[in-house]
Please model this.
Amino acid sequence: MRFLGFLILFLLLHFPRANHGLTGTFGVNYGRIADNLPKPGNVALLLRANKIKNIRIYDADHEVLKAFHGSGIEIIVGLGNEFLKDFAVSQDRTMSWVKDNVQAFLPGTKIRGIAVGNEVLGNPDIQELGEVLLPAAKNVYNALDSLGLARTIEVSSPHSEAVFANSYPPSACVFKDTVLPIMKPLLQFFSQIGSPFYINAYPFLAYKSDPEHIDLNYALFKSNAGVFDAKTRLHYDNMFDAMVDAAYAALEKAGFAKTEVIVSETGWASRGDENEAGANLKNARIYNRNLRKRLASKKGTPFRPKKRVKAYVFALFNENQKPGPTSERNFGLFKPDGSVTYHIGFQGMVSSSPATLSCLLTFKAFMASITILMLILRW
Model:
């Protein structure tokens, strides 16, 4: 019995636990490239009112981290691409960043992960960062480990679909030859520390690029003939599942069949330019409503039926300062004033009707009312 106890202790100390940043199946990306968004404190109240318990932010903004103190909302913070070169060569700078932007806010703010870079591999504009991604990730993990935080805070790095050579049918998906020399060591490291593979999967972007050959219903989780994968003999009735399984297929071919796939971004634009097929309010509502149902089912995919599908929706708000086509500024579930962009079961900070502008009842507002009443009675 004593030997068994020592063995269990050894395993706990030397083998990583899979403490993923997303503990449920549904999260939201809280982007802030805008000049008209609600204060972070109000955003925390909005999320709590709608029972959204997981978010990703793209930096480690102190105002946001302070505002979420005591909220119970679990956060993945982002280490921007601009830090990768320095952090790859300096453990001291990495340690300082982790202390200032992560450790300093624990345990009141529930930071559950650090996303090292974003869409680094497969992007020709920032390809030179590929070689520093792994050493930067290792230094972040080493800093967490030195501070006793590595078992509770996940280290990861989200990727775009550009890392794949092809993804149709799902079983044919492979990593690009140009990506593999960097991707395999990265996957090996993440496998060792128990981190999942994060992929940004957008049926909207696939449909927009080829509306003549992609069934819109297939992209929106609506009734359709679906796609049959002859190699695996699996049937897909929606593109989202097919994208997730394509990532699993690529991982398996690269030697990482046990690595879990989590969707770090997915969503649908509610507005777009004339040449952006499918970008409208109706399709955005249908996609995100059906996505919520899909994630709430807690089911796996045809290729990985026992692995619950998990995803972060992009995005919490429309962001008026994002560059690019009109769609880039219109992925929000909520408008900047806190009202819902469309109804999929969420409640806004104010009603969608400008005439009423009724405030969302919060605990803080209730307590403020009680305080005022007590003062009046005392007077």
Observations:
- The chain has twelve helices and 13 strands.
